[in-house]
Amino acid sequence: MEEEASPPGLGCSKPHLEKLTLGITRILESSPGVTEVTIIEKPPAERHMISSWEQKNNCVMPEDVKNFYLMTNGFHMTWSVKLDVFSANKENMRLPSPYFHPNHRRLEPSKKAAKFSSL
Fold first, then answer.
1. Number of alpha carbons in the 13 Å side-chain half-sphere of residue 83
2. What is the total count of domains within the chain?
3. pTM (two decimals)
């Protein structure tokens, strides 16, 4: 599975991403000086990935968490902010995934996800 980007200027094309970002996509797109708003969604986890993670970590995820990862496995949203006529800053927001990319054999929680989940 490949990561999929929402087309710039169209907001989140998937309702669950709109909810995850709390509508920030539309706010950014309508803000003066903000350009190139894109969101790249990671492909959903598969059941066997979740089972492997549970076995490796000797725990059972609650059903709602499993359902969440079966729906989305994280995203990366970027946007640029035009500071003056000649410069722009690239900003971003991530929802980290506890899994490596599906092409990898080993499944481990990422360090970022571990920090994120411990908050």
1. 6
2. 1
3. 0.54
Q: What is the pLDDT of residue 115?
A: 45
Each residue of 6-25: pLDDT tens digit?
Answer: 444 444 557 777 888 888 88
- Cβ contact 36:25 at 8 Å: no
45-58 core/surface letters (b: 16 or more CB in 10 A; e: else) = beeebbebbeeeee
Residue 87 sits in which domain range? Answer: 4-117
Q: Residue 97 is encoded by which pair of tokens? A: 């995934």
Burial degree of 74 (CB within 10 A; 0-12, 13-18, 19+): buried
The residue type found at 21 is T
Pairing verdict, β 34-41 and 4-6: antiparallel
Break the chain down into helix, strand, coil percent, rounded to 5. Answer: 35, 25, 45
